[in-house]
Amino acid sequence: MQLLWRIKLLQLIMIQLLCAEALLTFKGSFAGPHKFKCSIVKQPCQIQCSKLNEPETGGVKAKLERNIDTPTHKEAQVKKQGGRRAAVIVGGAGAALVIIIIIVVVIYISMRCCKRFKRHSSDSASSVPSQAVEMGRVNNSQYVNAYYPHYMQHTRLLTILELEQATGNFSQSNIIGEGRFGFVYKGLLQDGSFVAIKRRLFALTRDFIPEVKQIAHIHHINLVKLIGYYEDSYQQLLVYEYLPNGNVGNHLYDNEGLPIGKLDLRRRVSIALGASKGLEHLHSLVPPLFHRNFSTRNVLLDENYTAKVSDYGFCKLHTKFNQAGSSSNVDCFHDPELSLSENYLEQSDVYSFGVFLLELISGCQVHNRNMPNPDENLVFQAKNRSGLDKFVDTTLGEQEKNGGRRMMKLALVCVDVIHRRPSMAHIVQELERIQRDIAPLYSQINEEIGVVTLGSELFQ
Questions:
Q1: Numbered residues of the known binding site
Q2: Is residue 302 part of a domain?
Q3: CATH code, domain carrying 411
Q4: Topology with regard to the membrane (predicted)?
Q5: Model confidence over 8-23: pLDDT tens digits?
């Protein structure tokens, strides 16, 4: 605002100075004719006086000649002074035109600066007020995401007006899911970015703001970024980056929990590796941050199928919310050796990740239509099945099943008794080895596809 007032003040000063200069120029141009008039009046007097004092040496003819010469001299003087007057008027008009052009250019530039300043102000503050949350954790992981610039590492306190506008007043047509925190809406903020807005009504907790501050500056390429939040007396909202491909389950199984075969082994290994890096990053913080509610539905995919872990850091909110009821599919991801939430360890997240691996490699939901016994689940089947080949997703190719068996063995270790479970760092290393080993398989497939394409071009 101060900058706008300064620009306007500068405009007024420039206009006053230029107007004063224009007045002086016009005054100088009009001063010329007065002098011209005086010289015209004075000149005939001088000529007349000189003629009266001359002796009459000539006769009537000489007088007539002198009378004839006098008007000719006056006419020359008038023409001479008239040319000067015209030149002065033209010069003054030209100077005034230049001054007017300068004034117009200055005003135009000032208006452009004002518009640019207003646009910059509206872009930098898409919600009013918007305040940054203080850093609540220390980050020392080797997987720190270096792709987020400094100005993006601030979680904003958004206004309810902006959130209502972003979701069409929380229209049902914008609902894209429902999770532990409540309904999830797709929204469009004022800065043009798509977001996922989680809204929780009435069942509020005073731990909301402390937990927001705790995760405000946790950034990693395999973690869903928290963009903003809002809280009032009857609702709490969390605003995350929007990932268009949804959770991994949408690409693994149908509504009955059976395989649909959308993902090949290479993509499944890449998704597993990304999710494991996200969890390992949380465990590497000081102090460590455990997810506590990891499942397949919490692994989301962006437009490039990069896996990102969501719903981390809000364990107290989710624990209290779960007391109202939970589904059996989610319960299967919980560590059976976990008795109290206070005893939660890294190995409990590892167990949940093992169940996720079983779903990923089998292509089946942890509870699906093919399970006759309600108490039976995917973990029970994996531990009690004699052959691993029957458990691997049948939609995978024969050459891919070897890598599938290696992932199965890793998953079974993760769901073993607590003291035998590996760390997330070890899981990341093992998945990286599997990824390197299966890479030649897909390069060979690509070469074969290229050969077939080249051969087919011969017949075009």
A1: 198
A2: yes
A3: 1.10.510.10
A4: Single-pass membrane protein
A5: 666 666 666 666 665 6
Tell me: do 226 and 254 sit in the same domain. no
Do 275 and 324 sit in the same domain of this protein?
A: yes
Smallest CA-to-CA distance from 137 within 211, 218, 210 is with 218
Residues 378-414 pLDDT 10s: 998 888 876 777 888 988 888 888 889 999 999 999 9
> Residue 442 domain-assigned?
yes
Q: Is 148 left (phi over 0), alpha (psi -120 to 50) or beta?
A: beta
154: CATH = 3.30.200.20
State the residue range of the domain holding 307. Answer: 248-460
pLDDT digits (tens, 9 = 90+) for 170-229: 999 999 988 878 899 999 999 999 999 999 988 787 788 888 888 888 999 999 999 999
Whether residue 294 is found in the same domain as residue 423: yes
Total domains present in the chain: 3
pLDDT in tens, 350-362: 999 999 999 999 9
| CB contact at 8 A, 355 and 415 | yes
Q: Which amino acid is at 227?
A: I
The set of residues, in sequence order, having a beta carbon less than 8 Å from that of 353 and lying 6+ positions away, is 275, 276, 279, 294, 414, 424, 427
| Domain identity same for 82 and 133 | no
In tens, the pLDDT along 245-287 reads: 999 999 999 999 999 989 999 999 999 999 999 999 999 999 9
353 and 236 share one domain: no
Q: Measured between alpha carbons, how far is 104 from 14 in angstroms, rounded to an integer?
A: 11
- Domain annotation covers residue 53: no
The pLDDT value recorded for residue 77 is 57
Asked whether residue 56 is domain-assigned, the answer is: no
Let me know whether 110 and 176 are in one domain.
no
**Token digits of residue 446:** 């690509």
Known binding positions for ATP: 198
Same domain, yes or no, for 267 and 192?
Answer: no
One domain for residues 215 and 180 = yes
Confidence of residue 96 (pLDDT cuts 50, 70, 90): confident
